[in-house]
């Protein structure tokens, strides 16, 4: 009888070992895979968020500065129309008064708005059913507007005080407002600003995005620059007209200074209607609609073009462009 030999099967031994330990080996291996898969997914989401935020900041800042520079005189005329009381005359000199200081505020405000809007929109569109895309756009617009208001309001206060001739330079305006009214003076009319801008931002971007979705479905292609600009003009003009009374209230509260002619939003409305008639709540509607209509055309045209240029820098741009979905 020859010597006894023992055949060794690595697979069998591994299985037996796993069975002997209650399957802990295979479970640990599976847990490791799940862990690394989870880490990978988290990193991808973070990269996607940062990329969306970065592109939104750049595109928003560029679009905001271009619009503000091009249309500042119309905005100045609108502000003076709304601020004047009774039969006062409108001064047409110094229509670019305060532009430099305003751009210093518009740039970060526009960047913050789009930096919040784009990631929020993408997240909401993925979380909500497709038929609720309008809710995603409305909500993202309101969130972006609220975040940007922290910079927008002081910028608006200084700009409108300069447009109405109260100050000659932005630094001087800030110094005197703080000296006479405290830091809260830089946020004069903050609640009325939110009352105007949150609905405005939400409605304008919702109208714009929804029309683009419908247009893409009908045309079965991406929109060109002229089409984006036309849709932006329509959404801007419509929203501007609807929110003019809110804009008048905001302007009156912001330019009143330490005089405190109005004690709040309700008192402001009551005083305007009593002393000037309900029609005064629509003061400046023509230049406002013109300004925001043209501004919407420029803003959204520049915005979409900048977003395309930034997207073209991505390594996966060609793949994404061929497999792109409607937003």
Automatic annotation (TrEMBL):
Solcar repeats lie at residues 51-123, 132-214, 227-309. Keywords: Chloroplast, Membrane, Plastid, Repeat, S-adenosyl-L-methionine, Transit peptide, Transmembrane, Transmembrane helix, Transport. GO terms for biological process: chloroplast organization. It is a multi-pass membrane protein. Pfam families: Mito_carr. Belongs to the mitochondrial carrier (TC 2.A.29) family. This is S-adenosylmethionine transporter. It comes from Kalanchoe fedtschenkoi (Lavender scallops). The lineage of its organism: Eukaryota, Viridiplantae, Streptophyta, Embryophyta, Tracheophyta.
């Amino acid at each position: 009888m020859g010597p006894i030999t023992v055949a060794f099967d690595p697979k069998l031994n591994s299985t037996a070992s796993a069975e002997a330990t209650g399957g802990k080996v295979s479970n640990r291996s599976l847990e490791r895979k799940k862990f690394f898969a989870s880490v990978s997914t988290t990193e991808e989401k973070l990269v996607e968020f940062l990329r969306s935020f970065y592109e939104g900041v750049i595109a928003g800042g560029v679009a905001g500065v271009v619009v503000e520079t091009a249309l500042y005189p119309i905005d100045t005329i609108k502000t003076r129309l709304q601020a004047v009381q009774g039969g006062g005359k409108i001064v047409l000199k110094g229509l670019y008064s305060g532009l430099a200081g305003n751009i210093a505020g518009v740039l970060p405000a526009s960047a913050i708005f789009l930096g919040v809007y784009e990631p929020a929109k993408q997240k909401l569109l993925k979380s909500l059913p497709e038929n609720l895309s309008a809710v995603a756009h409305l909500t993202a617009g309101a969130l972006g507007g609220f975040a940007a208001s922290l910079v927008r309001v002081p910028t608006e206060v200084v700009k409108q005080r300069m447009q109405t001739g109260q100050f000659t330079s932005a630094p001087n305006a800030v110094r005197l407002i703080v000296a006479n009214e405290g830091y809260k003076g830089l946020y004069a009319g903050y609640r009325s600003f939110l009352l105007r801008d949150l609905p405005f931002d939400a409605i304008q971007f919702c109208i714009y995005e929804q029309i683009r979705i419908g247009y893409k479905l009908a045309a079965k292609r991406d929109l060109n620059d002229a089409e984006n600009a036309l849709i932006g003009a329509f959404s801007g003009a419509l929203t501007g007209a609807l929110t003019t009374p809110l804009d008048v209230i905001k302007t009156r509260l912001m330019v009143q200074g330490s005089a405190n002619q109005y004690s709040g939003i309700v008192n402001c409305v009551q005083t305007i209607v009593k002393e000037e008639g309900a029609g005064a709540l629509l003061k400046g509607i023509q230049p406002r609609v013109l300004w925001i209509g043209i501004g919407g055309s420029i803003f959204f045209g520049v915005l979409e073009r900048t977003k395309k240029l930034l997207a073209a820098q991505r390594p996966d741009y060609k793949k994404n462009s061929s497999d792109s979905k409607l937003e």
